[in-house]
Amino acid sequence: MKWTLLAIAMLMLLCTASLGQMTPYSTTTTGGAPTPSTPTSPESMGLEIPKTITTSGQSPSVQESGQTIIRSTEEAAYSSAPESLKSTSSSPISTKATYPQATYPPGGMSQNSLYISYASQTVAGCNLYANLPLWMQISGKGNIWFYEWYPSGSLDTNYAGNVYYPGWYKRWFYADVPGWHILQYYCNGWSNYAYIYVNGPSHWVDPSPGPSPMPYPYPYPYPYYYSYDDGPMIYTYNYPSSSQGQPYNPYE
Predict the structure, then answer these.
(1) CB atoms < 10 A from the CB of 146, how many?
(2) Can you tell me the distance from the alpha carbon of 208 to that of 16, in angstroms, rounded to the nearest whole number?
């Protein structure tokens, strides 16, 4: 009996360990970017996939799409929040509400903040190939590096330029891969982590599919032509719209 209970306990332990395995996040950077700490995974935080899809109703303008970072204001960051989350204060900058506590890297809180779609949201969900604005409250000046961990654990590092004045800035996120994305930036100090779950199929989908000239109800292009060589005559079939071959003589 003891051995049976022990075996069951070991099996449960192995199952728990298997379920608790976390994505191995990379911390390898390029271009001289500061090396980040391993981010806190959504699983270890107990984050659930957001049920509400965040839609900003915006897309980067031609001018913004060519910039890695855009100067903005606190009012713009908070005014994008849903009305239900805003306070009743008459001050537009004071329209702040209670949000989940942001997660910071080891070493305590930072004066740099990162929000998704509106301040002070740090967890959001969106559809594949969506664009979401990111709001950054930067406390100082200097070079700014932006970090994005993909669902596979790989790290993409981008140099976003030089910040000459502290304040509020804007950047755009593009949802290119389904799954959890973890975002962070560095500017003479680390920001909090921001988490975005991208909804979409596990296989690649063309973001700009072209129109198909006709539907494909079969596992091959429709209509499907094939030929049958019978001596001097070749019968050409148009399947499935034709049930009878149309003969022609190639030697005529």
Answers:
(1) 24
(2) 42
The token pair at 236 is 């050409």
User: Residue 17: helix, strand or coil by DSSP?
Assistant: helix
Length of the chain: 252
| Structural domains of the chain in order of their starting residue, each with its CATH number | 33-199 (2.60.40.1930), 213-252 (no CATH)
Burial call 52-81: b when 16+ CB within 10 Å, e when fewer: eebebeeebeeebeeeebbebeeeebbebb
* Digit-coded pLDDT (tens) for 156-191: 999 999 999 999 999 999 999 999 999 999 999 999
Both tokens of 58, joined, read 């915006």
Residue 18 has pLDDT above 50, yes or no: no
CA quadruple 6, 12, 18, 20: dihedral sign: negative
